[in-house]
Amino acid sequence: MPRGFVHEAFTDTCNDDNTADDSSHSFSYHVTIALATHDWTLAGMLTNATQHTLSRIIEYRMAMSMDLTSLDHPKNHRMARKQLETTLQNVWKELQNSITVDRIIENLQYKYERHNQGVLPMRMECIQKAASASSNPQNQSQTLSSSNWTGREASRLVTLDTIVHAVSEPPPPSKQQRGLFVRESSSEGLLGILQCLRKDPTKQYVVSRLIDLLPDKNKKNIAIFCPLTLLSFVKCAVEMGALAIVAKQQQQQTNE
User: Whole-prediction pTM value?
Assistant: First the structure.
């Protein structure tokens, strides 16, 4: 959607009869992708530099003569036009002297720094939380076992580098637990991956490599099974108890 478009993102959950349940809450992904728009282009930088340069000169901040568009007085029109031609020549000289390569680079660097400083606190907070979860995951929840991790708290630890395996006997779903939500276009392929995992629960796979288990009939549409799709699917499967995270000690043994 266009930048600045006011919107609200929320998660729909359903009761057993498939009716909407507005009173319950569950997690969802709300991804915002920022593209390099006019503000970050050369045209945008030149526009800002031109406005800043010319706005400092009082003559260029004055209203333009209406004689430029009126032909009722030809003499006044010609004089206004001639004056505008002279003014534009002065404008080009001023811009050429003021807007240089060094100034554009300096302004761009300042824009980068100001933007990064604005988002740095939030970015560092996310990095610290991720580092804390990675270095000491047992503190995330006392309900996580020492070998196989399942459940909502465990699902929050899943990354593309996480090693998972199928659970031989998944726990029965609870009323608070959400179901498996996947797009119709990718559901067959993702469920095929899960079925392949269940054939041998002892086998362990890195999340990013689960694409290798995609059934052959779904590989013609492999583009829709992006890393984010795999990650979202595994997070949901771990939360439901269909998949489990392999403990760090077992991961090291597997790597050795």
Answer: 0.44
Long-range contacts of 252-256 (CB under 8 A, 24+ apart): 254/163, 254/204
3-state secondary structure of 45: helix
| Residues 160 and 208 sit within 8 Å (Cβ to Cβ) | yes
Structural contact between residues 46 and 39, judged by C-beta atoms closer than 8 angstroms: no
On whether the CB atoms of residues 110 and 49 are closer than 8 A, the answer is: no
The CA distance from 176 to 191, in Å, is: 22
Cα 166 to chain centroid, rounded: 29
DSSP bridge partners of 151: none
The percent of the chain in helix, strand and coil, each rounded to the nearest 5, is 55, 5, 40
Task: Report the 10 Å Cβ neighbour count for 144.
Answer: 19
For 214-235, letters b (16+ CB in 10 Å) and e give beeebeeeeeebeeebbbbbbb
* Cα 251 to chain centroid, rounded: 29
Of 156, 248, 144, give the one whose Cα is nearest residue 204.
248
Among all chains, which residue has been given the structure tokens 């000690």? 249
DSSP state, residue 217: G
Distance CA 173, CA 179 (A): 8
pLDDT digits (tens, 9 = 90+) for 13-50: 555 555 555 555 556 666 777 666 777 888 989 999 99
What is the amino acid identity at position 142?
Answer: Q
Distance, in Å, from the CA atom of 96 to the CA atom of 89, rounded to the nearest integer, reads 11
